[in-house]
């Protein structure tokens, strides 16, 4: 049981022994893991399809240790992959076989909750939900709420620019982080953003958020907190076609309403989750919308009335407004449990994350339905309808011949379709390793070069999370797909609309 | 590539070939802002004039996004949005009728509503950039959520054109609030700051605040705009108190704040000081406060070096926004710590190796 994970690294690889010796005196031995039984848990993140055993895992306990690790990595030319809670869904934290895995979970102190400025200063390993829990005593909370918020860390949220159900009204991570403290690959400590509005120089904070651990290691974060609403209610509306539900979404926004959350589930998704949560979802509906209003009691009454009018006008076949906080949570339970429910009805599922302009919702869902036959697999759709962010769940069985491959191809086809209608391959899960080939479809060679320029300005040695997010040109050539200008159809053999 | 765009592209390629910089210009209303070009007039031939590349490309009100070419007049965009009862929620200042959306994004300036709605960069969804090789690059898009690649369009907001010329931008728009009221309270500067701190932690729908001193510099007026549905505004008014300002007067007042035409903005030199919002009064001269304390416009006799030292210690930054006589060796923008400055410089070097785009407009030395 004492097998060393170091031995799994190729002999021609970096001098890990020399590197570890260098850290002695700064990073305590208990923070450095090299036994396979200890490093195995770090071999993948939330996307378990992609795995690699890290030769060394380091779990620093303070910023000084992070600096020492990065300086050591630079000196020994060792790649570093940072990891928060490991809940990511795109393989962004998949280890490098010749690098170190830097786990930041021990940096988990909430340093300050400040009512006067409505901000919190936290370390990167603090869980998303823990911030809101700590702030609740002051009547405040942290708005972005990815569905993994009970486990995911704020550092990981910054790496992925995480969203959540409420980001339609309250924004993404990039809108709610004011300042970060970062250790660069040179071991310098820099601060991006500040407690004051705006910042001199280029807006590197905006570029850093969503950079998937490729630009630096975050050691401290200031987030914006907002006053908790005193009231929230959700409307559950049924529609007899996906198109009618999509139109209702469009009309809500066109009517000048920005709901706190606006989610859609198609019939397959509803049938999948209802037996799991017993939320009273309408099993006859072709699509269900969940639409939330929050604020004071009077504001919510006013807004819910407006929303109901829009839904009725759009042909809703059934409308229910939550009458209590318990009922509101019950209505949400199905949506929030869509992933586990998928795991219950299918041995495996593959969650996609494309975003499209809302007006194409009906068309894209129709095309996905056609693809089900093409690839011989079923797909349930849950999505953040308000911001056009789709989460098709492709159901498959990895024990069946070809199904993994079919699921991957099905997923790739959905993402390429998203690009084709003017959308993007990833709304909130990130590119990581999973969608790196589709990056070749979305971007031209010159655009990828721009990304490399940014990477290189922060990390000239290419040591931070290499081979993620931005594909090399060689990789794109191998994938056989480069972005084509002029709107040519890239897969003439696939039926689209 | 269409004609107007290919002309601009060729001009950039020629500039790069001859290693002669170009100065990007839209409506020419923000020439006062940022580092000046060595104190000499820019010859016409060196101007990359984007004003002819104009027009709204796509606007779907229900998608909450507008895409327009960089030379499109800000006024045209606002009229277009107005027809659909929508707006640019960050309320960019309009320095003249020729202000363009490209210049608006490149300068990154936001107006009164920024404290509640977010800054210009928060609303950036996509950008097309003419790079230093004359190619057009496309980043982001028209969707609200997009994490494919780095967030370049937000990086370009406020970059003063040093990485390339914006050709097209996609910006998130917002519905206009159903209702708005403005309240006026009598208070001194410390009292106003105290109010801001109180309101920050409460669910009051305040969309803008301004405190400005009266002639004595001791007392002053605090203007508070509340926005939202009627019940929300009613609740906000009850919380804030003070006198209700008649709607027509309020409209004029907020326009003078947004467009910086209020008499206070005539002061020279005029400093734009961004501070942590709970920072106590600067006590360095006449001050106008916006954004719940986060933005302090300051007219001061204090030496720039002393002012910047004080502001740095408070965790803020000070821009020499408008001036008659430029003090020697004082950069317009607050200097960055060296590690951070070096990243900016490496980025400029990588993206524009010959240094043709707006040299020294954002940093005094590159």
TrEMBL record, chain A:
Which metal ions or organic cofactors does this protein require, according to UniProt? Answer: FAD
Question: One GO molecular-function annotation for this sequence?
Answer: oxidoreductase activity
Record SUPFAM superfamilies: FAD-binding/transporter-associated domain-like, FAD-linked oxidases, C-terminal domain
Q: Name one Pfam family in it.
A: FAD-oxidase_C
Task: Tell me where on the tree of life, at the top rank, the source sits.
Answer: Bacteria
Gene3D superfamilies xrefs: 3.30.465.10, 3.30.70.2740, Vanillyl-alcohol Oxidase, Chain A, domain 4
Which positions fall inside the FAD-binding PCMH-type domain?
50-228
State the protein's name: FAD-binding oxidoreductase
Entry keywords, A to Z: FAD, Flavoprotein, Oxidoreductase
């Amino acid at each position: 049981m004492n097998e060393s994970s170091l031995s799994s690294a190729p002999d021609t690889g970096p001098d890990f022994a020399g590197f570890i010796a260098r850290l002695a005196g700064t990073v305590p031995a208990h923070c450095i893991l090299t036994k396979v039984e200890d490093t195995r848990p770090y071999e993948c993140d939330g996307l378990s399809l992609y795995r690699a055993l890290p030769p060394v895992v380091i779990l620093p306990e303070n910023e000084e240790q992070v600096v020492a690790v990065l300086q050591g990595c630079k000196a020994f030319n060792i790649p570093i992959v940072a990891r928060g809670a490991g809940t990511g869904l795109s393989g962004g934290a998949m280890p490098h076989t010749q690098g170190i895995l830097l786990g930041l979970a021990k940096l988990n102190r909430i340093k300050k909750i400040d009512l006067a400025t409505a901000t919190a200063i936290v370390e990167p390993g603090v869980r998303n939900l823990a911030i809101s829990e700590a702030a609740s005593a002051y009547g405040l909370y942290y708005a972005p709420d990815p569905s993994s918020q009970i486990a995911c860390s704020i550092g990981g949220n910054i790496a992925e620019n995480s969203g959540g159900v409420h980001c339609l009204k309250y924004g993404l991570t990039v809108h709610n982080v004011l300042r970060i403290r970062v250790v660069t690959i040179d071991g310098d400590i820099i601060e991006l953003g500040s407690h004051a509005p705006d910042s001199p120089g280029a807006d590197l904070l905006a570029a850093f958020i969503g950079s998937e651990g490729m630009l630096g290691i975050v050691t401290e974060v200031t987030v914006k907190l907002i006053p908790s609403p005193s009231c929230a209610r959700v409307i559950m509306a049924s529609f007899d076609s996906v198109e009618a539900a999509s139109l209702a979404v469009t009309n809500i926004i066109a009517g000048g309403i920005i709901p706190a959350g606006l989610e859609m589930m198609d019939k397959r998704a509803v049938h999948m989750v209802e037996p799991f949560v017993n939320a009273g979802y309408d099993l006859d509906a072709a699509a269900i919308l969940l639409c939330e209003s929050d604020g004071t009691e009077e504001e919510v009454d006013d807004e819910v009335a407006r929303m109901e009018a829009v839904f009725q006008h759009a042909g809703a076949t059934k409308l229910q407004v939550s009458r209590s906080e318990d009922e509101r949570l019950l209505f949400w339970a199905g949506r929030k449990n869509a992933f586990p429910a998928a795991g219950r009805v299918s041995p495996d599922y593959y969650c996609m994350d494309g975003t499209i302009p809302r007006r194409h919702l009906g068309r894209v869902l129709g095309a996905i339905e056609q693809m089900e036959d093409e690839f011989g697999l079923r797909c349930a759709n849950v999505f953040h309808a308000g911001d056009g962010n789709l989460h098709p769940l492709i159901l498959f069985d990895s024990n069946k011949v070809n199904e993994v491959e079919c699921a991957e191809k099905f997923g790739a086809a959905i993402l390429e379709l998203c690009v084709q209608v003017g959308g993007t391959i990833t709304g909130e899960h990130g590119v990581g390793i999973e969608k790196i080939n589709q990056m070749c479809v979305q971007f031209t060679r010159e655009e990828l070069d721009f990304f490399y320029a940014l990477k290189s300005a922060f990390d000239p040695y290419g040591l931070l999370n290499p081979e993620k997010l931005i594909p090399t040109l060689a990789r794109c050539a191998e994938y056989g797909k480069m972005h084509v200008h002029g709107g040519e159809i890239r897969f003439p053999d696939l039926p689209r609309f | 590539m269409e004609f107007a765009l290919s002309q601009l592209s060729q001009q950039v390629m020629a500039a790069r070939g001859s290693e002669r910089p170009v100065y990007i210009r839209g409506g020419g209303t923000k020439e006062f802002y940022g580092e000046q070009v060595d104190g000499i007039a820019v010859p016409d031939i060196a101007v990359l004039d984007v004003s002819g590349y104009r027009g709204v490309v796509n606007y779907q009100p229900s998608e909450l996004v507008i895409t327009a070419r960089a030379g499109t007049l800000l006024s045209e965009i606002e009229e277009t949005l107005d027809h659909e009862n929508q707006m640019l929620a960050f309320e960019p200042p309009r320095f003249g009728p020729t202000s363009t959306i490209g210049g608006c994004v490149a300068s990154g300036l936001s107006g009164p509503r920024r404290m509640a709605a977010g800054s210009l960069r928060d609303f950036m969804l996509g950008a097309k950039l003419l790079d230093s090789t004359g190619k057009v690059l496309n980043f982001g898009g028209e969707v609200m959520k997009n994490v494919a690649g780095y967030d370049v369009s937000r990086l370009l907001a406020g970059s003063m054109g040093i990485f390339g010329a914006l050709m097209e931008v996609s910006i998130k728009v917002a519905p206009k609030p159903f209702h708005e009221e403005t309240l006026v309270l009598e208070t001194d500067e410390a009292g106003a700051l105290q109010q801001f701190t109180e309101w920050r932690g409460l669910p009051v729908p305040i969309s803008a605040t301004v405190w400005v001193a009266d002639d004595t510099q001791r007392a002053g007026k605090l203007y508070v705009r509340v926005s939202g549905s009627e019940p929300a505004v009613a609740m906000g008014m009850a919380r804030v108190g003070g006198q209700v300002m008649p709607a027509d007067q309020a409209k004029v007042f907020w326009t003078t704040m947004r467009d910086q035409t209020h008499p206070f903005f005539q002061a020279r030199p005029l400093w734009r000081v961004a501070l942590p919002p709970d920072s106590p009064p600067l006590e360095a001269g006449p001050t106008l406060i916006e954004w719940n304390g986060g933005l302090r416009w300051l007219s001061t006799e204090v030496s720039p070096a002393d002012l910047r030292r004080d502001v740095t210690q408070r965790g803020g930054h000070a821009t020499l926004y408008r001036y008659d006589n430029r003090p020697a060796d004082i950069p317009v923008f607050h200097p960055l710590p060296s590690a951070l400055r070096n990243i900016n410089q490496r980025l400029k070097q990588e993206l524009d190796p010959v240094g043709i785009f707006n040299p020294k407009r954002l940093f005094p030395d590159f």
